[in-house]
Amino acid sequence: MPSRHGYGQDSGGAAGLTENSSSFKASFDPLAYHAPVLPEEVIHYLQPAPGKIFLDCTLGGGGHSELLLAAGAEVIALDQDAEALAHARQRLQQYGPRFRAFQSNFRHFPTVLEEAGITAVDGILADLGVSSHQLDDAPRGFSFIREGPLDMRMNRDAGQTAADLVNHAEPGELVRILREYGEEHNAKRIVRAIVDRREQRPFETTLDLAQVIELVIPRRGKKTHPATLTFQALRLAVNEEMTVLDEFLAQAPQWVKPGGRIALISFHSGEDRPVKQAFARYSTEWLDRPEWPEPRRNPDFCMRLLSRKPIEATEAELKRNPRSRSAKLRVAERLPTSA
Ligand SMILES: C[S@@+](CC[C@H](N)C(=O)[O-])C[C@H]1O[C@@H](n2cnc3c(N)ncnc32)[C@H](O)[C@@H]1O
User: Per the structure, how many domains does the chain have?
Assistant: First the structure.
């Protein structure tokens, strides 16, 4: 569903940014770059303390990392976006060697930990999607209300852009992307319009695409921009976000110490579903099927859920940070190895 990271209409305004001031303000005010969501809840569940070490898979503006560091913990942080990394490194330099940051996709987190000589951590945090700064920064091409190149890559050094995708992908593939990643019911109609238009002239900019979508899916007074789900879907496809999440979920438990925790923050149902399913698989001790004579022990059983339902922002947080409105936090704890 459209969300803070799904290009809600308040993109920009909600973070208190004005159209042209985000980069300027961000260098002075960390919250203008990105306000971390569910901050108290993340700290409550991860329990940072001196002597503990955490992996922050999605450093972004460094807000969550800073909370862990301020509590005395050590943090290994990853981001695939070089610009985010540079910003957060500067912001967190006061923590010295307790903070180490690497440019990496978190699908490769085991390699980073291995290279840092770390075999297990006390907690892993992944705050999925893009930051407010990425969303609001027109040249990154994530926003359908700001003119910029149709890019959408979190890592600008690699991979195909959203323009590559809309200009060259098979129509059937585009329909699949819009349906699967955007749950866009008008996928076929939108793709037909995209194909008609690209045959005359390739897409180059965000507004170029947004306007073509708006022509075939009129707003009819609705608050949500008709390009919302298409942009969300393209971003997920460009950055292979669902594949990366699956790879991460398959590996994460092995890297957490007994009693250590994995905290995942998602922003739309497509992201939350695999997290919920993976946590359910890891926390189910016995499996049963009608064709089995008796239940069997689940070989993947290694965690317990710390909350059955996802944790969401309080009214107070929603007021101060409207972009937290679709955030869902799920936390699971690693059981002792003998469990
Ligand atoms: C929602 S923001 C994180 C905000 C951060 N928790 C904070 O407090 O400022 C997500 C960040 O993770 C990065 N990111 C998203 N997916 C990633 C991936 N697969 N590998 C590495 N970084 C990723 C994005 O570039 C972005 O900077």
Answer: 2
